[in-house]
Specification:
By secondary structure, this protein is of the alpha/beta class. Helices cover 23% and strands 26% of the residues. Strand 8 and strand 9 form a beta hairpin.
């Protein structure tokens, strides 16, 4: 829990095997156990962390979709971490496949937030696999045996610490002219979590860091950014797993890209 107005958070980058959900779930549980030992109240994992972001057309296969749901069910049953955490997975809703963040605490699926903006330029083909979140309205979906709110306008408020109010956006959402986090901050979010899978090209690292820092200042909020790690480098793309945490326009000390360990900062 927050103490003296401060919240301990972790941007986690687990070891990932593309399309190997059981392996990815076990690595996620390992980092959750470490976060519990370190007293983190919030852990943010990368985009599509349960399946891997670079699954390509496998996203449309039933075995992978069902494995992702089973992986989510296992995380709902975990007892190694008591705090709040967000993980990424593909989710079918009304016949459409969405890139989602699942927000979990205490065995409860608090909500599912779909990615609003899909990159479909240069090396990205998200629109080939996923549907964009159509609007800000909230509905309900049933997954892993539980019913949960689903939408881009969800805000998660801590009952014991009302100053901790969490908003979620996913990767490309931050790179748009009007990021969802701006709207979430206006609605009361004090912490923004970004589940990302941002690859490495020349000059991108500095710009990405500036985006995170500037958005945290613009929103007057904490911003926790967790991106996909080196295990996603299974195609012609390279991923470095940047972990960034910014507070009101200032970047906090954290881990470097291309980590040699799997521990959250």
């Amino acid at each position: 829990m927050a103490q003296h107005g401060f919240l301990r958070v972790a941007a986690a980058c687990p070891e990932v095997r593309v399309a190997d959900v059981p392996f990815n779930v076990e690595r996620t549980l390992e980092l959750l156990a470490q976060a519990e030992e370190r007293g983190a109240s919030l852990v943010v994992f990368p985009e599509m962390g349960l399946t891997g972001y670079t699954c390509g057309d496998l996203f449309h296969t039933l075995p992978l979709q069902r494995a992702a749901e089973a992986g989510l069910a296992k995380l709902l049953e975990q007892d190694v971490y008591r705090g709040l955490f967000a993980v990424g997975l593909p989710l079918v809703v009304n016949g459409q496949l969405f890139n989602c963040a699942a927000v979990i605490q205490g065995g409860a699926l608090l909500g599912l937030v779909p990615k609003a903006y899909l990159p479909n330029y240069k090396e990205f083909y998200d629109a080939r696999y996923f549907s964009p979140a159509a609007n800000n309205s909230t509905s309900e979906v049933t997954i892993a045996g539980t019913t949960s709110p689903f939408g881009t306008d969800l805000i998660f408020r801590c009952l014991n610490e009302p100053d901790f109010t969490l908003g979620i956006e996913i990767c490309e959402d931050l790179w748009t002219p009007a990021p969802p986090s701006s709207r979430l901050a206006l609605a009361g979010a004090t912490v923004i979590a970004n589940l990302s899978a941002s690859n490495e090209i020349i000059g991108k690292s500095g710009y990405r860091r500036e985006l995170v820092v500037c958005q945290s200042g613009r929103c007057v909020a904490g911003y926790v950014y967790a991106s996909a790690g080196v295990g996603e480098s299974s195609t012609d793309l390279v991923f470095g797993g940047p972990w960034l945490v910014a507070e009101n326009g200032s970047l906090l000390p954290g881990a470097q890209r291309f980590p040699t360990n799997r521990q959250p900062p």
